[in-house]
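During the no-cost extension, the postdoctoral fellow (Dr. R.K.) reprocessed legacy sequence entries with the updated structure-token encoder. One reprocessed record is reproduced below for audit purposes.
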Amino acid sequence: MNEEIVDQIALESIVQAELLEEKKMTTWLFFSIGERKYAVRSADVLEIIRDVAVYRLPFMPAYIEGVLNRRGDPFTVINPRSLIGDTVTTPPEEPLFLILKRDDDQLSLHISDILFFADMEEGDLNLIPGSNEEGYFLGTLGYGGEEVPALNPNAFELLIRKDLGSA
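Re-encoded structure tokens follow.
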């Protein structure tokens, strides 16, 4: 009798573990740049900071606004608008930045607003067929009846390396 109960509990534990494995969840940060919504994996974001000065750098590509100082460390500020096909290419007026979690570079994206965080199943990301690591988008996420583009942070680093000759 006790062995049957133990076996039943073990079986239920295995079934629950399989269900959890099937539904791998990813937390996404939804934000805006101008009037458009975008998403990025929250695991790719180190910090969100506001009200910091951006120091311009001469002879840089137009999408590099300059650098900001985060606790004594310089972070390259990227204005993604012109790169992702926005018709308005000026940087957002709001001083709000996503500090990206990178192993070897210090990058930030200039954004307009933080909208919300959402946990979504891995299968909810609609991948772009034929895209590669240089593409600015991983795919789209369906949320609230909209298809929200999911940004690929690696593409920004690759572009900078290519443009500045350190690829």
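Residues 2-22 form the longest helix (21 residues). DSSP finds two helices and twelve strands in the chain. The remaining legacy entries will be reprocessed before the final report is submitted.
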